[in-house]
Amino acid sequence: MTELDKRLFDKKVQITCLTLTGIKVSQVLPIIKKYLFKTEHFKPIQHGENGVNIFLNPEVVKEWSSFPTETQKALKDLNLSEANLKSADHTLTYDNFSVEDVLKAILPTDKEGKYLKFHKSEVLFDKVPGCKSVVNKVNMIDNTYRNFKMEVLKGVDDMLTTVKENSCTFKFDFSKVYWNSRLCTEHERIVKMLNPGDVLFDVFAGVGPFALPAAKKKCQVYANDLNPESFDWLVYNAKANKIDDKYFKSFNKDGGDFIKQDMKELLPNLLRDKKNVYIVMNLPALAVEFLSNFVGLLSESAIPETVKPPTVFVYCFAKGEDYNNIAKNLVVDGFGFDASDKIVELFRVRTVSSMKEMMRVKIRLDGDVLSGDVGKKRKLEDGLDVERMGKNKKINNVFKVAGAKSLKLKAKAKAIKNDLKNIKVKTKIKTTEIDKALVLLQDKVRQSPAPVQKPEVSQKSKLPTVNKEQALETQKKSNEAMENLDKMQL
Ligand SMILES: C[S@@+](CC[C@H](N)C(=O)[O-])C[C@H]1O[C@@H](n2cnc3c(N)ncnc32)[C@H](O)[C@@H]1O
């Protein structure tokens, strides 16, 4: 049985009906509005031969006495009585049931779950207006570009789709880029906060749900995404929505590079021009890791103290009950110093699953963050605290490292390990070069009948600049560091 038999949904019901003759619907409606029979493809107010029929929910109103006394009185004041209330036979069909009702009716009987996907897709295909295909996610979103593999359950095998959101149209291939219609309200909330002339840096822009409505609003937008497919659709959608080039610039690079290169170059002038600068970072699984890029970003530019600090909206997933504190700690860890006084607002965007909230953290990027002074100062203060409070404080700090900061440290250790690996390889190459050069030199010296002084000088100049002892020392140090890291089991 893979066919959904829609006739099984045909159902005879008795619906209570209040008939009005010579009375306006507008007089009665305020009194009985909450009792109307509401279901799909059914009009609860219909014109009949004997007047206007108002159909009422039979589960609530079966007879006149079902109305509370005040309602009965209000209806009597309009000359309506028990005589106006009747039950009428009606056949409900598949069309009258909502998606939820249909699924509820199917699911309990589908114990094996074998036909579940099929039934769901069939119902959704029928009930969602304009539905072209129904797809099923076959894996979790865990890749860099946040898209997922899908199987087509119903309709055409074509993932090219167009959606409308916040007065823009977005076209994209759903199998290759990230899109989530559940974020529509959040996109709208952010765009509403912006005013024409404001500046928006969208670090993880996707196909443009923040960026394009903002640019349409005449904000100056710099939108970036690493996924080449997203980038192409972002550019396409900007054109399709007739976004003026002067308000919109797109980038296709890693978010960290976008901050360290393009934002670093653009920010000083924007701040001097007293622009309101907003930075949106919607990559909840990873975005906090990019926050450290802001520390000292403008250390080389002279930024007056009076500038308006840029505002960052960074998204993260808080897994646990105390979602505000969890989000705050993620941000602090991301910055690498106690940035709690830079946090302006913690906002719960949506519940992803039980104990997993998507959070938006609003951060003020003050001058001391951009200059890097805050990082230096607070690290110094941490050190003083440790000294002041003696051994116990030190022990506490060790536990802190092993706990909340371990993830970040692990990532850093990984990066250091990679760097050391590179150094090791480079050192090996250099040592081999030096060995070869020395062998050559020795041969030449041996073969040379003349005094060794001159050739020695000329041969020396051919040698790489690092001497062998230095190279061996570097290799020894990197080996030691690698061993230490391995011991830490990071
Ligand atoms: C969760 S989606 C958000 C897209 C869009 N801003 C939205 O609200 O729907 C995150 C986006 O970040 C992009 N991305 C992932 N890693 C990135 C990185 N390192 N640098 C820049 N973009 C990245 C993905 O391709 C994806 O489009």
Automatic annotation (TrEMBL):
<dbReference type="InterPro" id="IPR025792">
    <property type="entry name" value="tRNA_Gua_MeTrfase_euk"/>
</dbReference>
<dbReference type="InterPro" id="IPR030382">
    <property type="entry name" value="MeTrfase_TRM5/TYW2"/>
</dbReference>
<dbReference type="InterPro" id="IPR031389">
    <property type="entry name" value="RBIS"/>
</dbReference>
<protein>
    <recommendedName>
        <fullName>tRNA (guanine(37)-N1)-methyltransferase</fullName>
        <ecNumber>2.1.1.228</ecNumber>
    </recommendedName>
</protein>
<keyword id="KW-0539">Nucleus</keyword>
<keyword id="KW-0489">Methyltransferase</keyword>
<feature type="region of interest" description="Disordered">
    <location>
        <begin position="448"/>
        <end position="490"/>
    </location>
</feature>
<comment type="function">
    <text>Specifically methylates the N1 position of guanosine-37 in various cytoplasmic and mitochondrial tRNAs. Methylation is not dependent on the nature of the nucleoside 5' of the target nucleoside. This is the first step in the biosynthesis of wybutosine (yW), a modified base adjacent to the anticodon of tRNAs and required for accurate decoding.</text>
</comment>
<feature type="compositionally biased region" description="Basic and acidic residues">
    <location>
        <begin position="470"/>
        <end position="490"/>
    </location>
</feature>
<feature type="binding site">
    <location>
        <begin position="254"/>
        <end position="255"/>
    </location>
    <ligand>
        <name>S-adenosyl-L-methionine</name>
    </ligand>
</feature>
<keyword id="KW-0496">Mitochondrion</keyword>
<dbReference type="GO" id="GO:0005759">
    <property type="term" value="C:mitochondrial matrix"/>
</dbReference>
<dbReference type="GO" id="GO:0002939">
    <property type="term" value="P:tRNA N1-guanine methylation"/>
</dbReference>
<dbReference type="Pfam" id="PF02475">
    <property type="entry name" value="TRM5-TYW2_MTfase"/>
</dbReference>
<keyword id="KW-0808">Transferase</keyword>
<comment type="function">
    <text>Involved in mitochondrial tRNA methylation. Specifically methylates the N1 position of guanosine-37 in various tRNAs. Methylation is not dependent on the nature of the nucleoside 5' of the target nucleoside. This is the first step in the biosynthesis of wybutosine (yW), a modified base adjacent to the anticodon of tRNAs and required for accurate decoding.</text>
</comment>
<comment type="similarity">
    <text>Belongs to the TRM5 / TYW2 family.</text>
</comment>
<dbReference type="InterPro" id="IPR056743">
    <property type="entry name" value="TRM5-TYW2-like_MTfase"/>
</dbReference>
<comment type="subunit">
    <text>Monomer.</text>
</comment>
<feature type="binding site">
    <location>
        <begin position="225"/>
        <end position="226"/>
    </location>
    <ligand>
        <name>S-adenosyl-L-methionine</name>
    </ligand>
</feature>
<keyword id="KW-0963">Cytoplasm</keyword>
<dbReference type="GO" id="GO:0005634">
    <property type="term" value="C:nucleus"/>
</dbReference>
<feature type="binding site">
    <location>
        <position position="187"/>
    </location>
    <ligand>
        <name>S-adenosyl-L-methionine</name>
    </ligand>
</feature>
<dbReference type="Pfam" id="PF15679">
    <property type="entry name" value="DUF4665"/>
</dbReference>
<dbReference type="InterPro" id="IPR029063">
    <property type="entry name" value="SAM-dependent_MTases_sf"/>
</dbReference>
<feature type="compositionally biased region" description="Polar residues">
    <location>
        <begin position="456"/>
        <end position="468"/>
    </location>
</feature>
<comment type="similarity">
    <text>Belongs to the class I-like SAM-binding methyltransferase superfamily. TRM5/TYW2 family.</text>
</comment>
<keyword id="KW-0819">tRNA processing</keyword>
<feature type="domain" description="SAM-dependent methyltransferase TRM5/TYW2-type">
    <location>
        <begin position="97"/>
        <end position="367"/>
    </location>
</feature>
<dbReference type="GO" id="GO:0052906">
    <property type="term" value="F:tRNA (guanine(37)-N1)-methyltransferase activity"/>
</dbReference>
<keyword id="KW-0949">S-adenosyl-L-methionine</keyword>
<dbReference type="GO" id="GO:0070901">
    <property type="term" value="P:mitochondrial tRNA methylation"/>
</dbReference>
<feature type="binding site">
    <location>
        <position position="282"/>
    </location>
    <ligand>
        <name>S-adenosyl-L-methionine</name>
    </ligand>
</feature>
<dbReference type="GO" id="GO:0042254">
    <property type="term" value="P:ribosome biogenesis"/>
</dbReference>
